[in-house]
């Protein structure tokens, strides 16, 4: 029983750009008690039963490592069924047949692009008398052209509202694996926020633009009163250029265009088989007058439950918090991606690794990451190497330190945030395989040498013309080798596994590291040496880091690898004032500078837009790249002071150790943990700080050198050492 009994079907011939629609008519023999549709596609599908959309899953069946795993969805369609019925399913190219990545021409990509589309579905109808009827994809289905004349992840969608499928032909069977089928495992992908346009305006160059006031990932819904044959045609953009004109060169080869041919009358439409990352649209063609009320940006992302909130007395900082959350929304569309706009939109492992902790505070991402980690394990190569992106659409590309370590760091983080051992059980083999891979691939035992790496990607201390910061690559690689080995040991202990061999390896890596790297040269080298406990004298190294940051003009010089831990290291070792200086810096480089340039999401480069309005580059310049948003986990843990130690995963016991800063007046953090609601806030009064804590679990309060253990409850106190319980 179930979808596996159905047969894969496809079109009798290739329809090129046009998305096919598959169709099957049937009659319900008698009163229906329940009807359930199980369905998936090679591509992305939209199913309609008697003209009504089935479910609210967008971009179904989602994105997995299709060679190994393809999700199917199950919908209760009882209410959509009548006596005479017709099931129609449109299948777009989706990720399955997309030319991903945009800038590489590989054999794998060529093959992918030439794959056939496919549909597999089973509708089970249970009648009132207890009998059942099953309608499954097979030769009895028909196919035709749909009104979707073109649809593709990077390039956009073309829809002809006048088009009516006229010619139906028999669908043909497709020989495709059914062993890859898995029931929906990730979060559903759904339409979320709807943002009405803020304004319609003309640029100095005369372009007609719509501004939504917020960068989102999803698509634009519009309403237009038109004549049949009129065209709505628009392009997408994240920012305007220095003169205030339309600009989207940074999308690179992704065309990101929507073309809609109108029917007669008032009509409302949005694309449904692709998505875009944008704040603006440029109306290249629009019949009649355009007003803001005609346009709505619809955000599309995984249906995760929101768990974390930050708010402070500083509006710029609040905007940063909002930008980080929007960065997560915009890049958690079934797979954690680097960016949603240019010809990438890939599950870059490094970016996900960097942001996973922050992500796990703002939203419940356990299910989201468990699915993706299963793909990571499925795509892990024979050697144990983890590719640059998951799903691995660059199977010939090398992995890299701090990217492949997503294999160990993310499972451990999910376990830490949620306290659920299952993710470790699922991933333990994959974690070990990654460490074993390094052991087998290195050219120097106990260090990781002789391999390609992305290094401290985008580090500000990069030599001119390079994306790679100056931190030594073998330093980073060995530091992460140590970290991943340590996490295998920790996970193994939780699982009751024998990890002696890894303990021996870990000891050897540490001693080899200390011999090979007796000195630390860059900010990132100091950060890693302390954060991964590699340095012999952690306090001294952290103090040296603080001195180096000061010497650098109280500016960070770190990239993807060092930045996420920089403030943590400073705060942990008594330099919170400096951590705050870095966070609150309003000039480049720093988290708040982009906000002065109108940022509504996190940028790939601190100076994506420079002071004079010019762009950092037109090539690698995403305005929705969540990686540096990882600073929010410092805000939760150190600034607001809510964290737990590793032996209390899932916040079963809390440590409350805030580091207030009078410059922002107050800070409040709210975290819906698996144990219940945690709220921590502080308010700087004239000469003291007022703290307020709600904890559902026992907590260790640490303020100004004093420590006190308390039970669950609500506490208000000041930094006088006097902690008063308020029931
Ligand atoms: C992506 C990054 C990614 C990097 C690898 C870029 O093109 O956008 O975020 O991690 O490549 O270094």
Structure in words:
Helix content is 25%, strand content 29%. The chain is α+β, with helices and mostly antiparallel strands and 727 residues long. It has four domains: 182 residues, Jelly Rolls (Sandwich); 113 residues, Galactose-binding domain-like (Jelly Rolls), CATH 2.60.120; 335 residues, Glycosyltransferase; 78 residues, Maltose phosphorylase, domain 3, CATH 2.60.420. A hairpin with a 2-residue loop joins strand 33 and strand 34. The longest helix is centred in the middle third of the chain and has 23 residues. The mean pLDDT is 96. The structure holds beta-D-glucopyranose. The site of beta-D-glucopyranose has 9 residues, from helix 3.
Structural class: alpha+beta
Described by strand count, sense and barrel closure, the largest sheet is: 10 strands, mixed
Q: Strand content of the residues, in percent?
A: 25-35%
CATH fold naming of the largest domain = Glycosyltransferase
In CATH, the architecture of the largest domain is Alpha/alpha barrel
List each distinct ligand once.
Answer: beta-D-glucopyranose
What's the shape?
globular
What is the CA-based Rg, rounded? Answer: 27 Å
| H/I helix tally | 14
Task: Please provide the count of β strands.
Answer: 39
Q: Class of the largest domain, according to the CATH hierarchy?
A: Mainly Alpha
In angstroms, what separates the terminal alpha carbons?
A: 56 Å
Q: Structurally, how many domains make up the residues?
A: 4
What is the residue-averaged pLDDT? 96
Low-pLDDT segments, ≥5 res: none
Q: Work out the helicity level.
A: 10-25%
């Amino acid at each position: 029983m179930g979808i596996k009994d159905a047969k894969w079907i496809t079109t009798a011939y290739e329809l090129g750009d046009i998305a096919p629609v598959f169709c099957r008519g049937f009659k319900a023999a008698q009163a229906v008690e329940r009807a359930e549709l199980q369905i998936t596609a090679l591509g992305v599908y939209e199913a309609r039963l008697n003209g009504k959309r089935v479910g609210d899953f967008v971009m179904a069946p989602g994105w997995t490592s299709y060679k190994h795993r393809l999700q199917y969805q199950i919908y209760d369609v009882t209410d959509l069924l009548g006596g005479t019925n017709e099931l129609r399913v449109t299948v777009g190219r989706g990720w399955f047949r997309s030319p991903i990545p945009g800038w590489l021409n590989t054999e794998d990509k060529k093959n992918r692009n030439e794959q056939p589309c496919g549909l597999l579905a089973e509708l089970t109808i249970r009648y009132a008398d207890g009998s059942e009827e099953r309608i499954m994809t097979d030769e009895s289905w028909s196919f035709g052209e749909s009104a979707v004349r073109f649809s593709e992840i990077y390039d956009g969608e073309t829809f002809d509202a006048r088009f009516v499928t006229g010619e139906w032909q028999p669908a043909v069977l497709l020989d495709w694996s059914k062993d890859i089928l898995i029931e929906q495992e990730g979060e559903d992908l759904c339409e979320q926020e709807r943002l009405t346009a803020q304004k319609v305006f003309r640029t100095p160059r005369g372009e007609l633009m719509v501004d939504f006031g917020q960068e989102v990932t999803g698509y634009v819904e519009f309403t237009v009163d038109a004549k049949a044959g009129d065209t709505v045609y628009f392009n997408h953009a994240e920012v305007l250029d220095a003169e205030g004109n339309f600009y989207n060169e940074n999308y690179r080869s992704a065309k990101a265009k929507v073309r809609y041919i109108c029917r007669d009358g008032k009509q409302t439409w949005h694309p449904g088989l692709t998505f875009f990352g944008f704040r603006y649209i440029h109306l290249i063609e629009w019949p009649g007058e355009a007003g803001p009320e005609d346009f709505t940006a619809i955000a599309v992302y995984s249906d995760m439950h929101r768990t974390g909130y930050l708010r402070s007395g500083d509006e710029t900082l609040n905007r940063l918090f909002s930008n980080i959350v929007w960065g997560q929304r915009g890049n958690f569309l079934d797979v954690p991606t680097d960016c949603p706009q240019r010809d990438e939109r890939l599950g870059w492992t490094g970016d996900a690794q960097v942001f996973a902790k922050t992500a796990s505070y703002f939203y419940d991402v356990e299910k989201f990451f468990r699915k993706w980690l299963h793909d990571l394990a499925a795509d892990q190569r024979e050697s144990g190497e983890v590719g640059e992106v998951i799903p691995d659409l660059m199977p010939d590309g090398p992995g890299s330190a701090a990217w492949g370590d997503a294999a160990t760091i993310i499972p451990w983080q999910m376990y830490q945030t949620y306290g659920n051992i299952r993710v470790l059980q699922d991933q333990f083999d994959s974690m070990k395989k990654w460490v074993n891979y390094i052991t087998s691939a290195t050219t120097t035992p106990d260090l990781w040498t002789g391999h390609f790496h992305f290094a401290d990607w985008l580090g500000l201390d990069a030599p001119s013309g390079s994306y790679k910061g100056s931190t030594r690559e073998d330093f980073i690689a060995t530091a992460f080798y140590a970290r991943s080995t340590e996490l295998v040991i920790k996970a193994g202990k939780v699982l009751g596994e024998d990890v002696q061999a890894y303990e021996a390896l870990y000891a050897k890596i540490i001693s080899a590291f200390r011999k090979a790297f007796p000195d630390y040269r860059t900010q990132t080298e100091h950060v890693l040496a302390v954060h991964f406990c590699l340095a012999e004298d952690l306090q001294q190294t952290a103090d040296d880091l603080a001195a180096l940051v000061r010497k650098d003009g109280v500016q960070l010089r770190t990239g993807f690898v060092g930045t996420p831990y920089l403030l943590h290291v400073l705060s942990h070792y008594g330099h919170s004032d400096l951590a705050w200086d870095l966070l609150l810096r309003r000039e480049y480089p720093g988290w708040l500078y982009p906000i002065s340039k109108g940022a509504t999401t996190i940028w790939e480069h601190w100076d994506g837009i420079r002071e004079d309005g010019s762009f950092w580059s037109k090539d690698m310049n995403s305005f929705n790249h969540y990686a540096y948003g990882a600073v929010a986990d410092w805000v939760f843990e150190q600034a607001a002071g809510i964290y737990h130690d590793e032996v209390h995963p899932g916040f079963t016991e809390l440590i409350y150790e805030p580091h207030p800063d009078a410059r922002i007046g107050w800070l409040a953090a709210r975290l819906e943990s698996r144990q219940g609601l945690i709220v921590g806030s502080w308010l700087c009064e004239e000469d003291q700080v007022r703290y307020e804590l709600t904890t559902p679990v026992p907590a260790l309060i640490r303020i100004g050198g004093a420590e006190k253990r308390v039970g669950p409850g609500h506490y208000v106190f000041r930094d006088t050492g006097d902690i008063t319980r308020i029931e």
